[in-house]
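QA checklist item 7 of 12: single-chain prediction sanity check.
[x] sequence parsed
[x] length recorded as 319
[x] structure emitted
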Amino acid sequence: MITTFTKKANPIHVIRWCASRPRRELAIFSLVFVLVIGYIDYATGAAISLSVVYILPIAMAAWFVSQSYAITLSVLSVVVWIYGDDLSSHHAIGFFVQAWNGLIRLLFYFLSVLLLVRLRALQHNLNQLVRERTAALTKEIQERQRLERNIMEIGNRERRRIGQDLHDGLCQHLTGTALAGHVLAEKLASGGQAEAKEAHKIVDHIEEAIGLARSLAKGLYPVEMQPEGLMQALADFAATTSDLFKISCKFACDSPVLVHSPGIATHLYRIAQEAVSNAVKHGRATEIVVSLEALDGGIRLCVTDNGSGIAIPIRAATA
């Protein structure tokens, strides 16, 4: 019970309570507060002054109700004080002194009201400025995120275009050149020319260039545009990893997982690529499993290995 009372008596909770109440209710409460203080002032007599206590309901009215009402309450407070002194028969000091004291109190109350109203206006302006600045920053962050997504998408499109040009343009051209060189080498060989061996070497070099161009195209454009492109790309990547590093790298996909967004498919492929690379280089893994699974809420990509790295599987999910 004591704890509850202490919590309610906390000034912060009082301020929050006042801020949550309607103005009319606070106006009535502050008026009753002034009358209660006036009664206590009358009961205690002039020996104990409660002039400072009157500032509490006046401040409440100035902050939560209005300036005009706070000024009216200030005048009422002075009247209540003077009337209480008259009723308690403590007016022997003279009317002039009593009026002067009342005027001083009234000026003090007016000054307090003006300062509180000004402070309230400054706080309101500051809150408005903070809200405007927050909205501007939020808009700027959203705009930057949009630009980053656009730049990333443009970069992905450009990489896909270059990869397609390498695969469909350069590789086809080199393939045609290799075929022509092979025909020429066969003709030279059938004619018993010594240059036939050199022609075969040229064809071999061209075929190596074709393989290199296809590898470059695959690196720039690893995932095909079709929905099943991610599955094929991960399967090819697992097979290439096994051949390149002489380890067991398998791709597991129990049911078809279709990804209709090329950007998401590319991101998932890059995540798997980075995870496998870390497992081989840093974890010294010899067995790696790349699994792809369709869930109700999206897609789950999981890379597990037997290396010495992080024990928790690296996962990536997208809706």
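[x] summary fact logged: The chain has a mean pLDDT of 81.
[ ] second reviewer sign-off
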